[in-house]
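Weekly modeling sync, notes
Attendees: AB, CL, MP (scribe)

Item 1: holo prediction request
CL wants a bound-state model with glutathione before deciding which constructs to order. AB pointed out that an apo prediction alone won't tell us much about the pocket. Agreed to run with the ligand included and paste results into these notes for async review.

Input as submitted:
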Amino acid sequence: MRFYDCATAPSPRRVRIFIAEKEITIPVEEVDLASRQQHNDSFIKVNPHRTVPVLELDDGSVLTSTQGIWHYLEYCYPSKPLMGRNAAERGRVIDLEWRVEQEGFMAVGESFRNKSKAFKRHAFTGGQEYGQIPELIERGKLRTGHFFSWLDQLLGDRKFLAGDFFSIADITALVTIDFARWIKCEIPDDHTALKNWYAEVSRRPSSCV
Ligand SMILES: N[C@@H](CCC(=O)N[C@@H](CS)C(=O)NCC(=O)O)C(=O)O
């Protein structure tokens, strides 16, 4: 296998945390998004969508989404489960991770991609050019604030998002909160449950990747 990564980007960090939690080793090839290596012919041959993460399997086929890679690795390395330990937990984890991605990760991304000068003609990833919409900068921040409040309420006195076990829902939420610093959104001081959870998951060795 080969994992195409970018050390500074939030999406592949979700895979790095997953790999670290599983305590497995996969050879890494760094794709420097800052110097636009995702648009090089050699990388387009690997992933025509021009994004990371990518997992190249031993038969040469590729997985080009965080979710596809997670599912594949969970199936291959079932010990230390990160997607629930039974059917009910699996359903809950997928449900929550989807919502965290839609309402948190995408909200931060919406604000960031419509603001940063680097994305002036690339408000979306891939080979097509799309201009920025400045109104989405503030709307994305507003959505991020609502996301923080929802997470705080959901957590209450739970240890992790889906219950008493760490999962991919926690991974996407952690990465989203760190990503939100790029748009200058921080967890509000009165969101105590969210702050406590964030401190707890940030202490895990996997969070440092
Ligand atoms: N949903 C995809 C999103 C992947 C994605 O958008 N990755 C970003 C880095 S966080 C990327 O490759 N960007 C390339 C670009 O901006 O051109 C996944 O999680 O796999």
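Recorded for review: The CA atoms of residues 22 and 102 lie 25 Å apart.
Action items: CL to compare against the apo run; MP to circulate these notes.
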